Amino acid sequence: MGWLDFFGKKESAKAGFVKDYEALFVKGIPRMRPISQLNFIVLDTETTGLQPKTDYILSFGAVKVRGYTISVQSALEIYLNAPLQNRESMKVHEIMHSHEAFSLQDFAKDMLGFIGTDILVGHHIGFDIAMLEKALKPFGLKKLLNPLIDTKDLAVRLEMGPNYDTRYGKPGEFSLDELCGRYHISLDDRHTAAGDAFLTAQLLLKLLKIAEQKGIQDYGALMR
Amino acid sequence: MSNVIVNRVKEFLKRFPPFTFLSEASLQLVAKGVEVHYFAKGEFLFKQGDPAQNCFFVLKEGSVHLTETQDGQTKVREVCDEGDVFGVLALLGKRPYILNAVAEEESLVYAIPVSIFEIILEENSRVSLYFAAGFASGQVVVRTDLSQSQKARGIFMEASKDTGLLIFTGQSDLNFSKDVVTCQQGITIIEAVKKMSTMGVGSIVVTDAQEHPMGIITDKDLRNRLIAQNMPYETPVEEIMTSPVMTMTRDAGFSALYLTMIKNRLHHLIFTEDGTAQSKVIGILSDHDILLSQGNSPAVLINALMKTWDVKEMAKVRDSAERLLRYYLENELSMDFVASIISEINDIIIKRAVQMAKKKHDADYPEASKVKFCFLSLGSEGREEQLLRTDLDNAMVFADVPEAQLKEVKEYMLLISQEVIEILLICGFQSCPGDMMANNPKWCQPLSEWKKYFSEWILQPNQLAIMHSTIFFDFRPIYGYKPLAEEMTQHIYNEIADKTIFLNFLAKNALLNPAPLGFFRNFIVEKSGEHRDKFDIKLRAMMPLADIARLLVLSHRVVGINNTFKRFEKLSELEPNYRELFLEAGKAYEILMRMRAIEGLQSNNSGRFISPEGMGKIQRQLLKNAFAPIDELQKIIRVRFQLDYFTN
C-alpha cells in the first residue's frame, strides 16, 4: 500500500483489462459508414431488481449483429457469482445451480473484451448500462464508452416520429413483449438474459430494415 | 456461447428433415454454426447466375419464392414455407444458382455453413441420401419425401466432383488470327474499309512497304475519328490510325501477353517475326479472343469493375478475384503474374472508390475539389505484394494551397479519404490497426508536409521514424495527379544522398526481427497467446527480406522500384558478385508469399501464422530453404553497415 492511499483514494485502481478497453476508443465511427458495415452487440441483463444502487446482475446475455445477420456462434451467456452479502437472496433464484458461475472479475474481463468498441443495443438499455457500470466500478471503469441504441427509442422514432412522447400513449405500448408481438417475433425463453438478447436482436434487424426504407442508411443518421 | 440461443435454434431445426435424422451432438454443432438473416419484402437472397455462397438456407418464418428469369420474364418455380431447405443444389454442385430467391414477405432465414454440414454429411448417410434424393430428382426445395433416396447416392457423389471453375488452362487455349488483314500506308480510308468489309473484320493493321506494323484502325476509330470529325473518306489511313502499336513475338509466354494487354488496356496486340515493330506482321490477338477463351478471368473481372458504380457489385467482383487467386495458387502460376493481377484489381477498386467519392462530394466543395491530389497505397499494397485482403495501408497527398484555403481543402481531402476507406471496407479489406490510413488527419497532408515528414524521419531516425519509413517508403500512386508522388520520390532521393546514418538505422532495423530457425534448425514458434506453437511467417521471414531489399536498394540510391522481388532482381544487376544470392532471395520471397496466401485462404485469415506441425515434410523443407538467404544477407549487412560498432 502506497503512502498516498492514506488520503483515502476513493476510486478503485484501473485494472489492466479496463485500460485496454479504454485505449480502444481513439476514434469514433465515421458518420458515413453504412448500417450494413456496423457492428452491434445486442445485450440484456437479468438482475435481482430494478434499483441499480442496491441490486446486482445475475446473468448477462449478448449476441453480435453485423450486416443484418445474427451469428449464433458469437452469442455470450454468463451467469454471475452472487456477491457475498447477498448470498441469501440467491436462493430465491434457481438460476445459480445449473450453470458454471463466473466471478465478477472474470465477467468484467470477458464482457469488456466481447463488446470492444461495438454499438451496444438493448431494450431500455439505460438500465442495463447502469447495472454494468456498477458491476465494473471495482475495476476502475467509470463509464462504458460505446455508442448506445435503445430499441424502444428506435421503435418509437420509426413508428411515431422523433417527437412523440410515450407518456401520452398506451402504457406498455413499446414494451419488448408488445413490440415482438407487433413484429411477429415468437416469444420463447423470455426472461433469460440470452433469450431476451436474442429476441431484441431479431427486433433490431427488423427495425434497421424499416429505418433503411425510411432513408436512415448510415451511422450518422441512425444515431442522429 | 449461449446455450439458450443454441437450444432455440435446435428446437426449431429438429422439427424438419433432414435435421430430424441428426444425433443430438450433430444437431448442436449445426445449431451453433447458424447465422440468422433477416430479409425485407422484395430483397434477394441470391440471384440466378450468382456463384454459390458458402451456406444453404432454412426458412424460419416468412415466405421465400424461388423464381426463374428467362428471356426477360420471371416465373415463380417454387414457394418455400417454414422449415423448407433451399439453395442446396448450387452448394453440392459448386456451381452458380439456377434460380433467384426473393423474400415474398419479410423473412427470417437460418443460414447453415456448408463446412459444418459437410462433416455431418460424411458421418450420416441418411442425411446425404436425403439431399441426394432431392438432387437427383431435380427438386429445388428439399422436402419431406424420402422415396427416391436409395438409388441417388452414386449421382450425388459424381456431382460433387465438379469444381466448375473456368479459368484458362494454358497457351493452347489461345486462338489468335494468323491471317491479319493489313493495308499499306498512303491508301485512303474508303479502300481500307472496303477491305475490312469484304474480310468481315473489325480492325485493320496499317503497315509500311516492308510490312512492318505502323498502326491499327478499328470500327471505333472510324466512328470517332472519321465520321464524327467530319473527315472525308479520302483521308489517308495513317491520319486516323492508332499508333504506335504494341508488338510481341508469338512465342512470348501467355502470362506476359496477357499482362501486357491488361496493364495497357489494349484491345489488340500484334505479333511480329522478332517481336519488335521493325519486322513483319504475323498475327493479331484481340481482347475478344481472350474473353472467349476464358470464363472467369481477370479480364472479365476488370471489365465488370470498370462498368459498375455499385459498391455491392464491386464487393462481389473482389470476392470472385479471391476464387481466381485460389486457382492460381493451386496451379502454381508465377507469383509475379499473380501479384500483378491481384494488385491491378485492387488498384481499379481504389480508383473507382475515389471517383465515387468525388462524385458524391465535389458539388459541396467547388473550390477544394479543384486542388490536385494523389491517393497512395503503402506497405505491402504499395509493393504490389498484397494477395489477401489484409490491412489497408494508404495515404493522401495534395498540392500545397494558400494558408487561408488549407482548412477547407483538408476537410475535403479527409472526406474523400474517409469515403474511399468505407468503400474498401465493404469490398472486404480490413482496417489498419495502426491507423496508417488516408482518413487519419496525420496521413492526409499537403506535399510540403509530406516532405517535412520524410526529412524528419531521415534526419532524426528513431524507432518510430524507422517504423514509419518501412511503411511509407514503399508508397505507390494509385489515383490522381502522379507528379505529386514523383516529387515525393525525388525528395527522398535528395534527402538520403549523404545521410548514411539513416541507412545505418534502417540496417539495424532490418536485423531486428528474430531469426526464423533455432539452434537445432527447428522453427521458432510463438510461445504463448492465441498463436501458440505457430510460426509467424510475416514477422520472421517476409519482413526481414522486404526490409533488406528496401535498405539495399536505397543504399544504391535507387528509388521507384517498390516490389520486393523486383528490388532483388535490380540488386542482382547492381552487385554481380552477389547475383546468385539476390536471385535466390527474390525466389524465397515469392515462395513465402505463396505459402502465406495459401494458408490465409485455407484458414480464412491473414495467413500470417503457420503451424509447422500441420505442414508436409516437403513443404517444411521448402520453407526452411527459403530462410537460407535471410541469414546470409543479414551477415552481409552487418559487415557493410558496420553494425557491430554502431549503437544508439
Automatic annotation (TrEMBL), chain A:
Record bears the keyword Hydrolase: yes
Top-level taxon in the UniProt lineage: Bacteria
GO-annotated cellular components: cytosol
GO biological process: DNA metabolic process
GO molecular function, one term: nucleic acid binding
Keywords on record: Exonuclease, Hydrolase, Nuclease
Boundaries of every Exonuclease domain copy: 39-213
SMART domains: EXOIII (SM00479)
Name of the molecule in the record: Exonuclease domain-containing protein
UniProtKB/TrEMBL annotation, chain B:
Pfam families: CBS, cNMP_binding, DUF294, DUF294_C
InterPro entries, A to Z: CBS_dom, CBS_dom_sf, cNMP-bd_dom, cNMP-bd_dom_sf, Diverse_CBS-Domain, DUF294_put_nucleoTrafse_sb-bd, GlnD_Uridyltrans_N, RmlC-like_jellyroll
CDD domains tied to this protein: CAP_ED, NT_GlnE_GlnD_like
Domain CBS per the UniProt entry, residue ranges: 176-233, 241-300
Gene3D superfamilies with a match to the protein in the record: CBS-domain (3.10.580.10), Jelly Rolls (2.60.120.10)
Cyclic nucleotide-binding domain boundaries: 18-121
Keywords for the protein's UniProt record, in alphabetical order: CBS domain, Kinase, Transferase
GO molecular function, one term: kinase activity
UniProt keyword annotation of Protein transport present: no
Protein name stated in the entry: Histidine kinase
Species name: Rhodonellum psychrophilum GCM71 = DSM 17998
Organism ancestry: Bacteria, Pseudomonadati, Bacteroidota, Cytophagia, Cytophagales
